[in-house]
Amino acid sequence: MTHLGQKLRRRSRALAARGDRGALSLELVIIFPAVLMLILIAVHVGLWWHARNTALSAAQLGVEAARQRHASIGDGTAETRAFLDRAGGSISSRQVAGSRGQTVRIEVTGYVETMIPGLRLRVDQHADASVERVTETP
After folding, report:
1. Which of 37, 82, 94, 115 is deepest in the core (most CB within 10 A)?
2. What pLDDT was estimated at residue 132?
């Protein structure tokens, strides 16, 4: 019985040592794509967030230019386009629109190009403020 017990122990040790071979490779094959996907998602969220903040800053600058006393909506949209040109190409297919009544509103829309072909993230920001006017006090 001792001889059989020793044989069984040796056999179980050999199987245990051989059973883990390739397990790390299999784990990496499963985990690596998920980790890579999370990294790409984080990068795309960062690109979208940057483009969103750029569009909002451009719209705010345009509103400040257009709300002045003798300014027109053309002044505001020109200032918005100039800011977007200076800010780089983070927003593609961009459109700038504005309106002026008692309040000035400028809208910036466009898309963020991503590393995934066919995926374009939409950016849509606006800013508005009341037009400056001089009032007389009696």
Report:
1. 94
2. 85
